[in-house]
Amino acid sequence: MSTFPIPAVLAVALCLAACESQRADVAQHQDIEGYVHLCSSCHGVTGHSVSPTFPILAAQQADYLEAQLHAFRDHSRADPHAHTYMWGMAAHLDDAAITKLAAYFSAQPASRGEPVDDKTAATAKSIFIDGIESRNVPACVACHGEKAEGQGAFPRLAGQHRAYLADQLRLFRSNARANETMHDNALNLTEPEIDALAAYLSSL
Ligand code: HEC
Ligand code: HEC
Question: Which of 89, 160, 164, 165 to probe ligand 1 with, by most ligand atoms within 8 A of CB?
């Protein structure tokens, strides 16, 4: 009796398994490419958007990106731009796609924004590092990290568009973007302080 049929059957079985997983890989890759293509019209292919209306996603914390995509999908992030631009986008994403997109954008290299003048940087840095005790403004560094690089659900702020950062602080303050922690943190910041923080953080 020849032993030939056994290895042949094995080979077929192995190939089936291998080819199946290869096909799945290709499908996953195309999946994410299709989505990235969609996102790129506003956020850029590598997450480095040009217009400050569209936040930079490159090097953002994956957990944070994931949480925001869920928040757009379940409408808990409901400021006007979230509603206009992101609710429709997120409606098409399932949990697996959200995880993959968050991993993809967070793995892109960071960039810096425009440089800031020394006086503005000094004002903002002092708030960022020490807070303003007399007005119950906490030190941002406690959550956002020493270089504003973020961690987990605390977003990276470094290198983000200046106008976007300032807008978000005002949206937290007015509760248009509902987040209890950031509402309290932004509540007692003055207009010039918000602008200084945004300019400084963007320059990092
Ligand atoms: C038509 C333009 C547009 C497209 C396309 C788009 N976005 Fe957005 N995205 C925006 C805008 C505008 C905001 C800011 C929303 C706000 O101000 O609340 C945003 C915000 C985000 C945020 C929150 C970032 C942060 O720092 O809080 C994430 C994450 C995000 N988009 C991911 C995606 C992904 C992933 C895709 C593709 C599936 C995508 N976006 C497609 C316009 C777009
Ligand atoms: C106790 C922790 C904590 C402190 C302190 C804190 N933040 Fe935040 N911050 C957060 C969290 C959590 C979020 C994400 C909120 C959400 O999920 O919508 C956030 C979001 C933000 C965003 C929006 C980023 C984006 O991509 O949309 C900005 C801007 C920001 N914080 C600035 C600041 C500044 C400036 C300070 C100091 C005055 C500060 N934060 C202090 C926890 C904190």
Answer: 89
